[in-house]
Write a structure and sequence with these properties.
The chain is of the alpha/beta class and 548 residues long. It contains 17 helices and 30 strands. Strand 5 (89-94) and strand 6 (100-104) form a beta hairpin. The structure holds flavin-adenine dinucleotide.
Length: 548
């Protein structure tokens, strides 16, 4: 069997290695148009920022090590410029010599990835305007900083690569402006959770400009002009405004693509041609939860698809289905970690047919470790669940321990878990690592309370729209109020609430608020059991401060 692979990084290199492990006899040829295979694209921002000090560390494997370990015929600096599916061959071009030649295949795997999207605008070709995707991109940015010692930079686009660049340029002592067209950074998060990241960026002296679009770059790359007419002076610009699948080869060969240019594959990675498979950023995937078609360019899915497809390419193994992608992702932004999995509210509201108005959220602020153990820091967990109790998604922002909590929830979603599973999950505990009730359990408890009607959460925005209707009661202690309170709230500390509650009018509706939501819930229970109509302000005073 002769297998040709196009693309030699995440999906392609993974496929080459596994194919060899499964079939010692197969002829495996891997074409990569760049000079490097299997490099750590996810690590590039950290090399630029100096966190990864050695450039060599970016090369997870080299042509030589892969060849020696896996006996793969690697043709680097060689671009596949045509796929002739009818005759089962590709046309390859040696980039250095310009020489072209044909290579036939029995099976073809396409893992050509995606590329940064750069719209056509004035000034995009100045020498100080960059995108970051490859090793040469990284070298250009790194050398520009080394040779020109820029003082100011503009990053356009607040997705995870843009944010990683904001942090890493700041590490280099560069004053960074982040320009984002949407009203929030980090698209996988809802605005309320993204606000936590935005607050942190501002605290780290990033000049954050939301709802502003880049129009052009003028004055030899020194001025960035925005759609509100303002101009930002800069020494360099990083464009990070999304990616597009590298699917022109597939399209020209007649393979079926979706509207966004993603190659359509079945669960086995097979394209519309039975001898051609595709994996990674270039394919359309199924959303693990909705089963709807989507595109999710992430390294984890690309690697897993690259692995799964091998058994399907080689007829002699049981077929392996790829079960879909739920978009579990994580990013470090200075001192905080921002992570999400599954569906967010934006998706749910857009996805009217399935979930609209038929989901609930819980929001808690637990500590990463036991409260009494040094080093514990708070995190915010927003959990989204359906009326059938199933977990739909989660978003977590915090300082430490965010990664294991998002992975726990992602795992629960993978196995079809519900909020009761989260409340009962037995998770490892000792004070340096967690609490006897882990933050994930807490998120589950709060969700179960909502599901059972023990608690009726209310968002601050909802209260704000109806301040005439609701009486806002702050149940924190008097000392705590001195540090700040929500305008219009009445202080009735929880510790004396059982004595003071009888002074209240049962015909009114009450919103209870504490620091993070826990005492608000206790107060809500007292209110409800005394015949009052009561709600708990979601996330308490902390969430109010975060979002206002
Ligand atoms: P790639 O790994 O991009 O490989 C595609 C390869 O195909 C490229 O090397 C390209 O040169 C080659 N190629 C394309 N066309 C041809 C052709 N015609 N002939 C020959 N070769 C061709 N994902 C995460 O999940 N977490 C992260 O933290 C993260 N951080 C990232 C940071 C950066 C700076 C970047 C750039 C990406 C990051 N990603 C991250 C995304 C992740 O790297 C991609 O989702 C993943 O690499 C996709 O794998 P792939 O195999 O589809 O494509």
């Amino acid at each position: 069997m002769k297998i040709v692979i196009i693309g030699g990084v995440a999906g392609g290199a993974t496929a080459a290695a596994r194919l060899r492990r499964l079939d010692e006899k197969a002829e495996i040829i891997l074409f990569e148009k760049g000079a490097y295979v299997s490099f750590a694209n996810c690590g590039l921002p950290y090399y630029i920022g100096g966190e990864i000090m050695s450039r060599d560390a970016l090369f997870v494997s080299t042509k030589e090590t892969i060849t020696a370990k896996y006996n793969v015929d690697i043709r680097d600096r060689t671009e596949v410029i045509k796929i002739d599916k009818d005759n089962k061959k590709v046309l390859a071009k040696d980039i250095e010599t310009g020489k072209t030649y044909e290579e036939n295949y029995d099976k073809l795997i396409i893992s050509t990835g995606s590329s940064p999207f750069v719209p056509d605008f004035e000034g995009k070709d100045f020498d100080n305007v960059f995108t970051l995707w490859t090793i040469p991109d990284t070298d250009r940015i790194y050398n520009f900083i080394k040779n020109n010692a820029p003082k100011k930079a503009v990053v356009v686009g607040g997705g995870f690569i843009g944010l990683e660049m904001v942090e890493n340029l700041s590490r280099r002592g560069i004053a960074v402006t982040l320009v984002e067209k949407m009203n929030q950074v980090m698209p996988p998060l809802d605005k309320d959770m993204a606000k936590l990241a935005e607050n942190h960026l501002v605290a780290k002296n990033v000049n954050l400009m939301l709802e502003k679009g880049l129009v052009k770059i003028t004055s030899n790359g020194k001025n960035v002009v925005l759609d509100d007419g303002s101009t930002i002076e800069t020494d360099m610009v990083i464009l990070s405004i999304g990616v597009r699948p590298n699917s022109s080869l597939a399209k020209d060969s007649g393979l079926k693509l979706n509207q966004r240019g993603g190659i359509i594959v079945d669960e086995f990675g097979q394209t519309s041609d039975s001898d051609i498979y595709a994996v990674g950023d270039v394919i359309e995937v199924e959303n693990y939860l909705t089963r709807g078609k989507t595109m999710i360019p992430l390294a984890g899915p690309a690697n897993k698809q690259g692995r799964a497809v091998c058994a399907n390419v080689l007829d002699s193994y049981n077929k392996e289905a790829y079960k879909g992608t739920m978009g579990t992702s994580i990013a470090k932004i200075f001192d905080i970690t921002v992570a999400s999995t599954g569906l967010n509210e934006k998706m749910l509201n857009a996805n009217g047919k399935i979930y609209k108005k038929d989901y609930f959220i819980s929001l808690v602020h637990p500590m990463s470790q036991a409260g009494y153990y040094p080093g514990g820091l708070p995190m915010t967990i927003k959990l989204i669940f359906a009326s059938n109790k199933k977990i739909l998604g989660a978003q977590i922002v915090g300082y430490t321990g965010v990664d294991k909590r998002i992975d726990t929830i992602a795992t629960s979603i993978h196995y079809g878990g519900d909020i009761y599973d989260l409340s009962q999950l037995e998770l490892a505990y000792a004070p340096p690592y967690s609490s006897a009730k882990d933050p994930v359990n807490f998120a589950g408890f709060a969700a179960c309370n909502i599901y059972e009607g023990l608690s009726s959460p209310m968002r601050y925005e909802e209260y704000l729209k109806n301040t005439d209707k609701y009486v806002l009661i702050d149940v924190r202690e008097k000392m705590e109020i001195m540090a700040g309170k929500i305008e219009g709230s009445i202080n009735m500390p929880l510790t004396t609430l059982r004595e003071t509650i009888n002074t209240l009018d049962k015909n009114k509706e009450y919103v209870l608020q504490c620091a993070v939501g826990l005492r608000g819930y206790i107060a809500e229970r007292i209110f409800k059991q005394n015949g009052f109509t009561a709600f708990n302000l979601l996330g308490g005073y902390r969430t109010y401060c975060d979002i206002t």
